[in-house]
Amino acid sequence: MLAAFVNSFALFAISGLLVTIAPFWVLSRRKGQKLNVRAAAVHVLSDLPGSVGTIGASLVIMPTRWIPIDPILSVFVTTLILRAVCLVTKERASILIESAPKVCRLRRSVRYSSRTCQG
């Protein structure tokens, strides 16, 4: 009974992995990405380790019946997702507090504005 249950999860995870690869490939190939596109790519990317973790857990559980591998891999995947989300959130927060985005060349802008604005 456990083997059939784990096999169905593995098949579901494999199909999820295959379905997730295409949108991630499309989103990651865009040049000069805006923050929203990168956030969408991070969201799609967060699905990939979840599928891989489920496949890995099923490959361990089937022969060994060692079920604690599932929460262990889940914590690992959650840590990866949390790191990626924190990076995007940090960049989004810096924009919201109106700091200059990384892609702006602040020194050139300051020099230009000091030349054009007298007094």
UniProtKB/TrEMBL annotation:
It comes from the Bacteria. The keyword Magnesium does not apply. It is found in: Membrane. One of its GO terms (cellular component) is membrane. It is a multi-pass membrane protein. The keyword GTP-binding does not apply. This is Co/Zn/Cd efflux system component. Keywords: Membrane, Transmembrane, Transmembrane helix. GO terms for molecular function: monoatomic cation transmembrane transporter activity.
